[in-house]
């Protein structure tokens, strides 16, 4: 009997990286888990299969985070197909790179649609389903607290918007016992930013621990906020960056 036994979670962008690790961890802690994917159907199926082979319950839903109606439908389907909703993890993300003179309005629209509008729609839809004591956890970025290099303005701005959303909904939904928090990962070994990729040594040198994080490191912070220990934490930012912002 895990700490999340009887709970239902939805993780957006759950087919790989931090999302897959989070879905797997929440399931290991006892939650039934739905996860969304955009194109990686086979990889989402692998996550579901891994959870089910470990004795858990999981569901993969096709939903492009840039499509507001698809995100709303995924939230509704989670509550309907799994019988409830207790935990929402806004994880889907993109990584636009370019200095302020290089990024375009199309880049802006695409980034804000995935990082901000999708989270807003998911939260707004989930609010009708979340049971008392529900949890909303958004995955942001340590680049909200410190921007160490050029080319990150659009990305950092979009992730910063999650902080304002989170603080606002912590007040809106707090009377129902629902918490809202942001987890800010630093350099994490994923396909988007591999620990052996170009520029990885420079990123590693910025940390106090002199290493990249793992998706499991971030998932552990999400699991804490989703579990009994996080019941009195809301409107907060938890940074999992190996000390980059120390």
Automatic annotation (TrEMBL):
> Oxidoreductase: present as a keyword of the record?
yes
User: In what residue span(s) does the Ketoreductase domain sit?
Assistant: 7-189
Q: Which InterPro entries match?
A: KR_dom, NAD(P)-bd_dom_sf, SDR_fam
The record's section on SMART domains has: PKS_KR (SM00822)
Arranged from A to Z, the UniProt key words for this protein are: Oxidoreductase
Family recorded in the similarity comment:
Belongs to the short-chain dehydrogenases/reductases (SDR) family.
Q: What is this protein called?
A: 3-oxoacyl-ACP reductase FabG
* Species this protein is from: Prauserella alba
Taxonomic lineage from the root: Bacteria, Bacillati, Actinomycetota, Actinomycetes, Pseudonocardiales
């Amino acid at each position: 009997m895990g700490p999340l036994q009887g709970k239902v979670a939805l993780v957006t962008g759950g087919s790989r990286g931090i999302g897959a690790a989070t879905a797997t961890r929440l399931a290991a802690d006892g939650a039934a888990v739905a996860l969304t994917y955009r194109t990686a159907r086979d990889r989402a199926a692998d996550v579901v299969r891994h959870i089910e082979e470990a004795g858990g319950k999981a569901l993969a839903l096709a939903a492009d985070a840039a499509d507001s109606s698809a995100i709303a439908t995924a939230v509704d389907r989670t509550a309907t197909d799994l019988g409830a909703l207790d935990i929402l993890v806004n994880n889907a993300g993109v990584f636009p790179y370019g200095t302020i003179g290089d990024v375009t309005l199309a880049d802006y629209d695409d980034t804000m649609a995935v990082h901000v509008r999708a989270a807003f729609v998911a939260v707004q839809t989930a609010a009708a389903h979340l049971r008392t004591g529900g949890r909303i956890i958004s995955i942001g970025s340590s680049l909200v607290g410190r921007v160490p290099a050029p080319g990150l303005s659009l990305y950092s701005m979009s992730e910063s918007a999650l902080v304002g959303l989170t603080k606002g909904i912590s007040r809106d939904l707090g009377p129902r016992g629902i918490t809202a928090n942001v987890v800010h990962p630093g350099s994490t070994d994923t396909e988007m930013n591999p620990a052996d990729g170009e520029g990885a040594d420079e990123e590693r040198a910025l940390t106090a621990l002199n290493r990249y994080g793992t998706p499991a490191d971030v998932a552990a912070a999400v699991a804490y906020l989703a579990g009994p220990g996080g019941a009195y934490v809301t409107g907060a930012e938890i940074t999992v960056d190996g000390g980059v912002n120390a």
